[in-house]
Structures are given as structure tokens and as C-alpha cells.
């Protein structure tokens, strides 16, 4: 039985690096972002590699690899058996044995302008302050105050982004960014699997919601049943006082 | 301009979903609704047609008969060339992309949601671009149609704009600026009688992968006993602020 190699791909440069021939079965794991997916698709289409999608786990069973990925908005898990050969995946957070650089696909002439500063980036943030569709524009303004006092980053659920309460670059979840903070403060969100698919397992959850039966409270270690419109400004005031002393 | 819009549909999140043990675990495709990404792709196609009336839009809806309701929703938006397409192995992203590639012909612009249905997480558009050997502009958020057609998206700390000047595949993400319009009631009534075509594709799943099983997802994180913070709002706020402050 030949052990599989699982290698992380770094997307850098503009030229595709020739893949060294390997006698061992090989799973290439690309970043689960727009660039990583585009490169993975181009690579798989060109090489005929098996495609297994955005995986959560990978383990060898006999000569095969068993990988899992979530489907149906994070409500189901699909396990796939991959026969020995070359396979392509994307992943947010998967342990890999080595990294390999592949050039980004090119060919589009794109104009780029810097976005206005949006505060702390979600990437690598230790504290994330999230809002759902239970909030309004003022609610998100209060989340900004709270995040600012904590040097945290603001996130939003897909429905909140759809409502125009936050830009899509702040969307966390199955179809948004993956974050892995120490603490995730969730205000006005019910706690759907789609949203929590974008939050790492280490995050401690603290929640505010008006509905005592909201699923978020079965995931949170602490929470308050309260109207966020009243509570969020008070939390922001309290944090700003702590910051000042 | 010839535009093809590829629509996947998703299981309505309001309905429960359970694996079907007699179908390799794959749940039946039912209660299908357009995803936010599907809707944004349709809206972008409609805006291009408004700006360029000679635009022809063709829509393909995945799911065979299960996609017919969505197909009629699209027909109600005055898109007359709509068909459903049965996918042989919707869980296999490469097989899906191959099937879709066979539908694209020589369209000038192909629009697709950034995720193609319940089994995709963003790979189908990328694979489709690879199979068609055309560029992919991924995660489009908005469109400008005054003068040239321009797509924009936010990537990291940049806004990126692309002038559409050659054959292109664009995957579209949700954005409040491209929310799908409501159809006119008279068109909804007409769409009930509209002829919806059916397309059969041949792409089978890859021989290198197979379904091992499918199961409800257990929450990755431990279910907790939430410590409920009671009291007047000022007390709740102070307690929550302290928890957040100490976690820095």
C-alpha cells in the first residue's frame, strides 16, 4: 500500500510550475478562495485529476483516500472514496505535509482600485463581531464600535449581506470567508449551519438574540436574550469605558 | 450578444433534508428554489439585455423535472429560451462541469452562480472555465452597462473591474445591488403555460471517485450549555462586555 501525499498549494507567481512526477498518489489542496478555486479548476481540467471539492477531512483507508465535504448549505456531509492517482481539493483548514507553488491563471486585464479602509481584516482576527439579519444599519454601526474597542473584525451572515447591511467581503459562512477567532460574538443571527460552516471549531461563541429557542444558544457558551438595538450600544459604551481606564 | 445562464437551484433551507439510504445517501431533489447566486446571475443577464436589446438569453436549469418550477420562474422574467437539464452525477463537480460545457456552444458570455447548487462549493465554475478553455472572472458583484459592459468585484482590499471584451465565463455572488427583480403578474401567468425544454447530458461521474456515504452533518463544535445572562440590559451589557474584554 502506497501512502498518499497531501500537499498544500500556494498560489503565487504567474507561471504554472511543472508538477514533479510522483509515484505516490497525490492530493493537491488549493486555498478555498477565488484564486485558489480558479487555479484548481484550471489545473484539474488540464490534467484530468479527480476533483473532490472543498474538503474537511482526509484519511487513508487501504490504498484509497476517504475525504469528506459538506453539502446542502452545511447540513449534510458527503464522504467520497478516491482511488490512487492525482486528485484536487480546496480546503480552509487542513493539515498538509508540504507546500508547492503554482502560478495564478492569467489572461484577464483587470483594473484594480483600493477599497476604502474597512477596519480590521477578518483574516487572522482573534475577535470577530458578527451580525445577522436581526440587525439594521444602526445595529451594524454598533458592531463597528464594539469591534473597534476590541481591535476585532466585523462579520456578517449572508442574509445580512443580501440586505445591504455589510459588504460581501465581510460575509462569513459556507459561501463566505472562513474565520477561526478565539471568540465570536453573534448578534441577531439564529445560528444556521451555513453560517457556522465558516467558523473554526476553536472559537468560543457569545450570542445575543431575542428568540430564546434560537439554535445559536445551543452553540454559545454565554448569551443574552435581549433586543440587540438596546443592548449593543450599552455593550459598546461599556467597552469604551474599559478601554479608557 | 448571446448569453447563457446556468442555474442550479438549491434545496429550500426552510425544508428539512435527510439522506436517502436507497440512493447512496443522496437526498431526493425536491423543494428546489434558486440560490442567491443563481438569482444574481439572472439579474445580470437581464440588465445586459435591457442595455443591449439584441441580446439573446438562454437559461438552463439543473435538476431535470425537479428544476421545472425554477424554469417557470425564469420564464416569467421574459426569458423564453429555458430548459431543464438532468445531471447524471450532481455530486461530482467535474462531471457537472463537463455536462454544462456541452450546453454552452459558442455563447459570448456564460453566467453562473459562484456555487452551482447544493453539491458545489465553488469548483464547478472554475472547472467549467477550464473545460471550455476560456477565462473565468469569479465572484462578480455588480455590473455597469453604460458604454462598455463592466463587471466589478471586491477582492481582499481592492475593487476589481473587468471590461467584457471577449468570450468569458463569469461566476456571480450575492450582492444587494444585483437582487433579482420581481416578475410582472401577467408574465407569471404566461409562464405557467410556457414550453420548458428538456436537455439530457451524458457526462458520468469520474471513475476515480465514488460516494462512500452521506449523512447529516453533526455540528463540529460541542453543543454547550449556554450560560444565560439575565438582569436589566445594563447588567447584561456589562457582563457581555467583560467576557469580550477578557478574551482579547
Quick overview:
Chain A has helices at 34-47, 137-150, 158-162, 193-196, 228-244, and strands spanning 5-11, 26-31, 50-61, 64-71, 76-82, 86-91, 98-102, 110-114, 127-131, 153-156, 183-187, 204-209, 222-225.
Defining traits:
heterodimer; A: 245 residues; alpha/beta; Rossmann fold; 2 domains; seven-stranded mixed beta sheet; five-stranded parallel beta sheet; 13 strands; B: 248 residues; seven-stranded parallel beta sheet; three-stranded antiparallel beta sheet
Can you give a write-up of this model?
The complex is a heterodimer of chains A (245) and B (248). The model of chain A has no long low-confidence stretch (mean pLDDT 90). Helix content of chain A is 22%, strand content 33%. In chain A, the strands form 2 sheets. Chain A has a 7-stranded mixed sheet with strand order 5-4-3-6-2-1-7, covered by helices on one side. Chain A has a 5-stranded parallel sheet with strand order 10-9-11-12-13. Chain A is an alpha/beta fold and 245 residues long. Chain A is elongated and about 60 Å long. In chain A, helix 2 (137-150) runs parallel beside helix 5. Chain B has a single domain, classed as HUPs (Rossmann fold, 3-Layer(aba) Sandwich), CATH 3.40.50.620. Chain B has helices spanning 36-51, 68-75, 93-101, 123-132, 185-193, 233-246; strands at 2-7, 10-11, 32-33, 56-62, 81-86, 109-113, 136-140, 142-144, 150-155, 158-163, 168-172, 197-200, 209-216, 227-228. Helix content of chain B is 27%, strand content 27%. In chain B, the strands form 3 sheets. Chain B has a 7-stranded parallel sheet, sandwiched between helices. In chain B, helix 2 (68-75) crosses helix 5 (185-193). With 248 residues, chain B is of the alpha/beta class. Chains A and B meet through helix 1, strand 3, strand 4, strand 5 and strand 8 of A and strand 2, helix 3, helix 4, strand 7 and strand 10 of B. Strand 13 of chain A pairs parallel with strand 14 of chain B, so a sheet runs across the interface.
Amino acid at each position: 500500500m502506497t501512502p498518499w501525499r497531501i500537499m498544500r498549494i500556494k498560489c503565487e507567481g504567474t507561471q504554472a510550475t511543472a508538477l514533479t512526477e510522483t509515484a505516490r498518489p497525490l492530493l493537491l489542496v488549493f486555498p478555498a478562495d477565488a484564486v485558489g478555486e480558479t487555479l484548481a479548476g484550471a489545473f484539474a481540467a488540464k490534467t484530468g485529476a479527480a476533483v473532490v471539492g472543498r474538503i474537511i477531512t482526509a484519511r487513508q483507508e487501504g490504498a484509497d483516500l476517504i475525504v469528506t465535504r459538506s453539502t446542502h448549505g452545511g447540513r449534510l456531509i458527503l464522504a467520497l472514496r478516491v482511488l490512487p492517482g492525482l486528485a484536487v481539493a480546496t480546503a480552509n483548514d487542513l493539515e498538509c505535509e508540504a507546500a508547492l507553488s503554482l502560478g495564478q491563471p492569467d489572461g484577464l486585464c483587470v483594473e484594480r482600485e483600493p477599497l476604502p479602509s474597512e477596519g480590521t481584516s477578518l483574516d487572522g482576527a482573534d475577535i470577530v463581531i458578527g451580525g445577522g439579519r436581526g440587525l439594521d444599519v444602526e445595529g451594524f454601526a454598533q458592531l463597528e464600535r464594539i469591534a473597534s474597542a476590541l481591535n476585532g473584525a466585523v462579520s456578517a451572515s449572508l442574509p445580512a449581506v443580501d440586505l445591504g447591511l455589510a459588504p460581501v467581503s465581510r460575509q462569513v459562512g459556507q459561501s463566505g470567508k472562513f474565520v477561526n477567532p478565539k471568540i465570536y460574538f453573534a448578534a441577531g443571527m439564529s445560528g444556521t449551519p451555513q453560517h457556522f460552516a465558516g467558523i473554526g471549531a476553536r472559537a468560543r461563541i457569545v450570542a445575543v438574540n431575542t428568540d430564546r429557542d434560537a439554535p445559536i444558544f445551543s452553540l454559545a457558551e454565554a448569551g443574552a436574550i435581549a433586543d440587540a438595538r438596546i443592548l449593543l450600544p450599552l455593550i459598546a459604551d461599556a467597552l469604551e469605558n474599559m478601554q479608557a481606564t | 450578444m448571446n448569453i447563457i445562464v446556468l442555474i442550479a437551484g438549491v434545496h429550500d433551507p426552510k425544508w428539512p433534508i435527510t439522506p436517502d439510504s436507497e440512493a447512496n445517501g443522496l437526498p431526493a431533489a425536491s423543494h428546489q428554489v434558486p440560490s442567491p447566486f443563481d438569482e444574481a446571475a439572472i439579474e445580470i443577464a437581464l440588465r445586459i439585455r435591457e442595455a443591449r436589446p439584441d441580446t439573446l438569453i438562454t437559461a438552463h436549469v439543473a435538476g431535470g423535472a425537479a428544476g421545472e418550477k425554477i424554469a417557470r420562474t425564469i420564464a416569467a422574467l421574459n426569458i423564453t429560451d429555458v430548459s431543464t437539464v438532468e445531471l447524471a452525477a450532481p455530486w461530482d463537480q467535474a462531471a457537472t462541469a463537463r455536462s454544462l460545457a456541452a450546453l454552452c456552444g459558442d455563447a459570448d458570455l456564460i453566467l453562473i452562480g459562484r456555487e452551482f447548487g447544493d453539491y458545489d462549493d465553488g469548483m464547478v465554475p472554475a472547472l467549467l472555465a477550464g473545460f471550455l478553455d476560456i477565462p473565468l472572472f469569479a465572484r462578480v458583484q455588480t455590473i455597469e452597462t453604460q458604454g462598455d459592459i463592466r463587471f466589478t468585484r471586491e477582492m481582499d482590499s481592492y475593487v476589481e473591474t473587468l471590461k467584457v471584451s471577449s468570450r468569458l465565463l463569469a461566476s456571480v455572488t450575492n450582492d444587494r445591488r444585483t437582487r433579482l427583480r420581481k416578475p410582472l403578474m401577467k408574465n407569471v401567468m404566461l409562464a405557467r403555460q410556457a414550453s420548458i425544454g428538456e436537455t439530457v447530458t451524458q457526462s458520468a461521474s469520474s471513475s476515480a471517485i465514488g460516494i462512500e456515504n452521506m449523512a447529516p452533518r453533526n455540528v463540529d463544535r460541542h453543543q454547550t450549555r449556554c450560560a444565560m445572562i439575565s438582569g436589566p440590559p445594563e447588567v447584561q451589557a456589562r457582563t457581555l462586555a467583560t467576557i469580550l474584554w477578557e478574551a482579547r
